[in-house]
Amino acid sequence: MTRVFLVDDYELVRRGLAELLDAEADLEVVGESDRAAHTLGRVAATRPDLVVIDLRLPDGNGIDLCRSILLADPRVRCVILTAFPDAEARAAAADAGASGYLLKSLSGRGLVDDLRRIAGGQSVQPERVAEQAPAPAPAPAPAMVLLSLRERQALRLITDGLSNRQIGERLGLTEKTVKNYVCQLMRKLGMHHRSQVAAYGVAVASARRSPSSGGTSLPHDSIPRGTKVPDCDRPATDVGRKDTHSAYIDERTMA
């Protein structure tokens, strides 16, 4: 019997997955949680074989949660279940130790079959994601651009899985102001999807923590320049801020 733990902030998703998996004779849902903070203790208590994790959670992201679960119990196999067929997020998930990156567009039978394969020791990812992954090739060092303090804060909080509204509450800014900062950030990074930004933030944070970097990782205010994305509605300012002093985030926390 394969014991499965579910992590998704939507109750309907968890309930649907539980009904699907419990209908199989060899699969059993032993627990669930709706956010990262509730997961580690419950996983330790239920000792599942598989943990199926949504990529985006209210208080973090599935990639960081996967890494934390495996640090606590390397025996567990983690599976990212997401609506986003993003090659960069898949690569970040693999780096975190995930055994699978599955799309919510899968049929019920397809999901069950993939979970069985993962429980059996295989690694699984969707073909569409694999096709998007760039072929390895030598490339010149990227040009560098500067990020403002607000853009660095937005990068860190997007990586943590926060929505624009939640970022605004954290920084004391209006949601419209946050949207413009995020748009500017994506333009500088040359990215078109929020999941790409989150995956990039995870990769940068991991590189900074890596002993092999030798202290030569990117400066806190520098990132590789990419291609353009559509212009923002207007330059972001703090005109719409609520109370930036009480919600201020020190730029030293960007590391």
What does this structure look like?
- The protein is α/β, with parallel strands linked by helices and 255 residues long.
- It has two domains: 2-132, Response regulator (Rossmann fold, 3-Layer(aba) Sandwich); 144-254, Arc Repressor Mutant, subunit A, CATH 1.10.10.10.
- It has ten helices and nine strands.
- A five-stranded parallel beta sheet has the order 2-1-3-6-7, with helices on both faces. Strands 4-5 form a two-stranded antiparallel ribbon. A two-stranded antiparallel ribbon has the order 8-9.
- 37% of the residues are buried.
Question: What attributes does this structure have?
Answer:
alpha/beta, Rossmann fold, Arc Repressor Mutant, subunit A, 2 domains, 5-stranded parallel sheet, 10 helices, elongated
Shape: elongated
Give the second-level CATH assignment, the architecture of the largest domain.
Answer: 3-Layer(aba) Sandwich
Helix coverage percent of residues? 40-55%
Average pLDDT rating: 77
Number of domains: 2
Distance linking N and C termini:
42 Å
Give the strand order of the largest sheet, numbering strands 1, 2, ... along the chain.
2-1-3-6-7
